[in-house]
Amino acid sequence: MFETSKKNKFESGIIVGIFILVITLIVYYICHALRLGTMSIFIALIFSIGSAWASYYYSDKIVLSLNKARPATKEEDQKLVNILDSLMVTAGLPNKPRLYVVDDAQPNAFATGRNPQNAVICVTTGLLEKLDYYELEGVIAHEMSHIKNYDIRLSCVVSVMVGFIVMLSDLFTRALFWGGVKDRDSDSKANGILMLIGLIFLILAPIFGSLMQLALSRKREFLADSTAVEFTRNPDGLISALEKLENDPNQLETANNATANMYIINPFKKNGKKKSTNIWSTHPSTADRIEALRNIHY
């Protein structure tokens, strides 16, 4: 399992490289299709860098605001604080993550932030009420694994890249249908062919990007599960927690598509029924995760 974790880290790096290549190609096609000149390249790069910078430094605040999270307090959430303190020794994080709570009956949790020095762990009140000490320890260890493995940064970067691809596709489509693309010289036939290629690429790129984002999220969940067991030396706690989370019938009221992949388990559930993993899944199936945890030898 731990060898597989190393392989997943390498594959994640390859996926990020593919995203960078895709964005570069999209900018190239747009510049030639719209014939805006070389300045458009600099405008696109400046915009992408500015968006990436804002998302990098303010991603945690945006996510916490979207999920209506409030800071945890030692007085109200003593058990949560104690578990985090005890795991800090085995996790080896440089700084203690900030703790937040979402008032919701569904038991769930996620981690966010740009790096381990600026990380946040957020849990629902349902998680605190329905899990015992060792189950809650397994969940917190899972989220600390995301922090230590830099999943929180990777998730942020990939989300920005996918969003940028979708934005470019939308801008190109608007320009095409509102007269932004016009023939300007005798070379219009060649440019028309190039425009068609670019249009097809831009239509397919957001779909491809979303699929890659979902696949990456699924891989990181297996990695975080295995690392959590390394922290706690107790796979049974996390297994029991995942079973409770999977079977809980409540819906997460603050859940949204932008942050669904960040939770330990998919917050969008239908009648609490288990689902098999498919290409559109934000998470691997809980059954597959539990089986992998049971096969861990340490």
Question: Can you give me a brief rundown of this structure?
Answer:
This protein is of the alpha+beta class and 298 residues long.
Unreliable residue stretches: none
Order of helices and strands: HHEHEEEHHHHHH
**How many helices?**
9
> Helix- and strand-based class?
alpha+beta
Report the β-strand fraction as a percent range.
Answer: 5-15%
Strand order of the largest sheet: 1-2-4-3
Q: Specify the overall morphology.
A: elongated
Sheet with the most strands?
4 strands, mixed
Mean of residue pLDDT values: 77
Rg calculated over all Cα atoms = 22 Å
* Spatial gap, N to C terminus: 10 Å
Measured as a percent range, the helix fraction is 55-70%
Strand segment count = 4
General description of the model:
This protein is of the alpha+beta class. Helices cover 64% and strands 6% of the residues. It contains 9 helices and 4 strands, in the order ααβαβββαααααα. The protein has helices at 2-34, 39-66, 78-91, 125-130, 133-148, 151-177, 188-232, 235-247, 286-294; strands at 70-71, 98-102, 109-113, 119-124. Strand 3 (109-113) and strand 4 form a beta hairpin. Helix 5 (133-148) crosses helix 7 (188-232) and helix 8 runs antiparallel to helix 9. The longest helix is centred in the C-terminal third of the chain and has 45 residues, at 188-232.
Summary tags:
298 residues; alpha+beta; 4-stranded mixed β-sheet; 9 helices; 6% strand; elongated
SSE inventory with pairings:
Elements: H1 2-34, H2 39-66, E1 70-71, H3 78-91, E2 98-102, E3 109-113, E4 119-124, H4 125-130, H5 133-148, H6 151-177, H7 188-232, H8 235-247, H9 286-294
